Amino acid sequence: MSSCTHTPDTPAVFPPLASDRPTRAAAIRSALDDAAALINTQHAQVLSAVIAMKEQGLHRSEFGFSALRDLLLSQFDFTFNTAGSIAAIARLSGKFRLLAKAATTGTARIDQVAYAVRQLDQTPAMRLFARTPFRAPAPSPFDPAVLCATPEAMVAQYCAHASFRELRRHLDELWASIAEETELFDELGEQSLQRLELTPQGNGMWALEGTLSDTTGRLLDKYLKTACPPPRQEDTEADGGGEGLLPAQANRNAEALHQLLAGYGASPQAATRHGHTATLDLTVDIETLQGKDTGRLPLLEGQPISVARARLLACEGAVIPSVFNYATGEAVELGRALRLPNAALRRKLELEQPDGCAWHGCDRPVAWAEAHHIQHWADGGPTAAENLILLCRFHHGRIHTPGWTIEKTGPGQAIITHHDGHEGQSGNDSEGCGCSDWRTDTDMDTENQGSDWDVFPTGLYRSEWSEGMKADLDGMAEIIDRDRAFQAMRAAKARCREKFATPPPSPVPVLGCPSGRLLGEAPPHQAAQPDPRGTGPLSMP
User: Fold this and answer.
1) What is the dihedral of CA 417, 315, 202, 472, to 10 degrees?
2) Which helix (H) or strand (E) holds 280?
3) Which segments of 55-151 are extended strands (E)?
4) Which is higher by pLDDT, 103 or 188?
5) Cα–Cα distance list, 380 to 290, 334, 376, 427 (Å)
6) Of 346, 282, 278, residue with least CA distance to 314
7) Which helix (H) or strand (E) holds 119?
8) Residue 246 half-sphere exposure, CB side, CA atoms within 13 Å?
9) Stated pTM of the model
10) Can you give the pLDDT at residue 23?
């Protein structure tokens, strides 16, 4: 910092006092205007020098300062506010060249320009908006002949001609006007970051992982909540362990996503390619589909699958079966219109089964249920209410596994039975087929409760664990069992703490009069007796 030096006396810049006040005020105004112009000119020169120093990096290499304000305060006799304003404009001169030019040319004061550049630099959206050209150049409110191509040019006009209050108001209006633009820029960033990866796994399943934008995430979240609302409070607390009566919400979300894709794929509004929507193609000849030993396998999207799976997929709306006669090569007229119930028949089935899936205890909504042909349509079973029952996708798949039969006993009513080693009898035999292993769906759930029946939300039996999925199912079952053990341990600890907690100390008894009277108080039943020595009442000892 430079040392203080004695400044010699200079003649007064003000004229001798005049006799009238207006003349004196005019003289002072002129002197102040000249001084302000001189100060502003000096500030402009200083700012130009500091910008040049900053652009060449001299403040670091030659002066040893990284912050321009600290340099101006430490090495020169600038005030704190002046140093801060000059440093702010110099630091942002590369971003806001028009405002920096207004300050270096002396068109606008450095304090107003410094305030403007600080406000415009607060967010990336504001910086971008300030330099984005108007659709058409806007005239300056101070000089219509001056056209402003960008918001920054308009701000420079306010810095040069408006008061500080008017400048601040204009910048506030800019903030309000770009609120929507800021959100749009945020949306552009989100769309650039979002991703969705669908990867086939070695076990036949698919891994879905990604990051969605706010809008996409909200849409999916709302759809899932609409398709499968969260469990009720009484359901989540029904078993005391936090499991709830309803399946796990994550599992229900996955099923809801399947229903979304299946329903959209069958919609006329769905995206198409070569005239087809997002459905799976199943190709099979009628004899193979009927279970005859033809030596041929069905094809799903060109890949061979089992006959049992083909019969199941042929019941789903998201699969288009192409069934043909192998001998003649002609298409068999068993298409979508015949194998799937139309809107009126579907409505009838839903009215008969308002609670959804026919499996005992299943709570999947009726909208998710699939129409199962009791006599398969490939075997000549009609698509009529008497031959159809609604089942959720999981239990529909279970019915197609060996040993299961389903018999419709009335509108929306059916008996589901399992028979080891055979398929059971046809007909409405509510007493069963007579074999020793005849069991209903309720019997099967009860018998499997002790063998991981309640590990998975669907109620998958351990006997249904396939060899290909056994490793994955075992791993998940171990994680679930471990979590349950931790929950049981925490619950046991909580009960022990509650049982053996030290009771709060009893209050120390305070001895008092057995009668409960206050000291010196007469018994309520004893009236005051006259004093035989006088006229007053007898005093109690």
Assistant:
1) -30
2) strand 280-285
3) 138-139, 147-148
4) 103
5) 9, 10, 7, 17
6) 282
7) helix 110-120
8) 18
9) 0.48
10) 87
